[in-house]
Design a protein that fits this description.
Blueprint: H1 2-6, E1 12-16, H2 21-32, E2 37-42, E3 60-63, H3 73-78, E4 81-84, H4 90-93, H5 97-117, E5 125-131, H6 154-173, E6 177-182, E7 185-186, H7 198-208, E8 213-216, E9 222-223, E10 226-227, H8 228-240, E11 247-251, E12 257-258, H9 259-269, E13 275-278, H10 294-300, H11 308-322
Parallel strand pairs: 1-2, 1-4, 2-3, 4-5, 5-6, 6-11, 7-10, 8-13
Antiparallel strand pairs: 9-12
The structure holds nicotinamide-adenine-dinucleotide.
Nicotinamide-adenine-dinucleotide is lined by residues 17, 19-23, 41-47, 65-67, 85-89, 103, 129, 131, 159, 182, 184-185, 194, 196, 198.
Length: 328
């Protein structure tokens, strides 16, 4: 595997949405571990360049909407790897449905059309970051990549469309592509103010700020929580591995964890916290979800390293050092 990872060293990389939660972790790894020459395209919709700290001065930052490809056309021409992460998150997706469609799907189509019309000898891989949300209400757990998508939200629909465009342009026009489907990523650098921060980030933020942990419904809703360093590592492997070409991979842990279990794990570390109950909400009405990671394990030899207990500890420590006085 090490040989494949070497492929990305010193390469020219474009990261759209590179100031976001996963994006800035990816940028930091590509810089610090692989010495890549990085351009970030981000319109700061729900993020800020400050998140990159000292690394901001080591990248080229283009503050523009990802739809505005004229503003970064030159970068497209030169890029060896493109990680397309810019997105409208699930919590915002139905509020501005057309913009959600534009950012999650149309921007993908625009970039792929650009390469169809202007084939680039430089491009080694276009990576689309999809979501386990595309499985929707599919109940065939654990969800493998062939599980039939039964989408339940605008976000899932537009992420699936972006992924479908990616695969179509890979197969029909010879653009080297891979799509990865993340399952509930958490960890370093996830702002609890981000509406898609997810239950874990919000719980930890509440716990550290002396607030109650609100468990929605009976707390038996399950998800597969992926630590961000694992998600980043898997994404880079999917970019460089020759067996990943024109294919879709789940990125998760294969472990199903309930919301109440998350709260209990946090309570083991911070015993003073109180757990309360709230009524059900309707933005992500899926009772159980866990992904099958056998494909990425078998084809790309990737397995997650951080289990949920360790991941929660790491996240608590990060929040303590960085967000302890966060309000709301
Ligand atoms: N975080 C998760 O648990 C998770 C799960 C499944 C899939 N994903 C996917 O992974 C990718 C990264 O997710 P994240 O959690 O880092 O999201 P995020 O919301 O933290 O980051 C998204 C970034 O995209 C930028 N952006 C939004 N609209 C833009 C536009 N029109 N032009 C330019 N930039 C724009 C935002 O400013 C932000 O910096 C997304 O594609 C998302 O769909 C994430």
């Amino acid at each position: 595997m090490i040989d494949y990872l070497d492929k990305i060293k010193h390469k020219k990389v474009l990261v759209t949405g590179g100031l976001g939660f996963v994006g800035h972790n990816l940028v930091n790894t590509l810089l610090d571990t692989f010495n890549c020459e990085i351009t970030v395209v981000d319109n700061c919709l729900n993020s800020s360049p400050d998140i990159l700290g000292e690394n901001l001065s080591k990248i080229t930052f283009i503050n523009t909407d990802v739809l505005n490809i004229e503003a970064y056309q030159e970068v497209l021409n030169n890029a060896n790897y493109i990680f397309h992460l810019a997105c409208v998150q699930i919590a915002a997706s139905s509020k501005n449905a057309e913009y959600d469609l534009e950012v999650n799907a149309l921007s993908t189509l625009r970039i792929l059309e650009y390469f169809k019309k202007n084939p680039s000898g430089n491009l080694e891989k276009f990576i689309y970051t999809s979501s386990a949300s595309v499985y929707g209400s599919s109940t065939n757990l654990p969800l493998n990549e062939l599980s039939y998508p039964q989408v339940l939200s605008n976000y899932a629909a537009t992420k699936l469309l972006g992924e479908n465009f990616t695969m179509i342009y890979g197969k029909n026009y010879g653009i080297p592509v891979t799509s990865v489907r993340y399952s509930n990523v958490y960890g370093y650098g996830q702002s609890p103010k981000n509406p898609y921060c997810g239950v874990l980030g919000k719980f930890i933020d509440s716990a550290l700020n002396g607030k109650e942990l609100p468990v929605i419904g009976d707390g038996e809703q399950t998800r597969d929580y992926t630590f961000v360093t694992d998600a980043v590592q898997a994404t880079i492997i999917a970019a460089v591995h020759p067996m990943a070409i024109n294919d879709v991979f789940n990125i998760g842990t294969g472990v199903e964890i309930s919301v109440i279990r998350l709260a209990e794990l946090i309570k083991e570390i911070i015993p003073s916290i109180h757990i309360t109950r709230l009524p059900e909400r309707d933005i992500d009405n899926i009772r159980r979800r866990v992904v099958d990671i056998e494909k990425i394990h078998q084809k790309l030899n990737w397995t997650p390293i951080i289990n949920i207990k360790k991941g929660i500890e790491e996240t608590i420590n990060w929040y303590k050092s960085n967000l302890i006085n966060s309000k709301d």
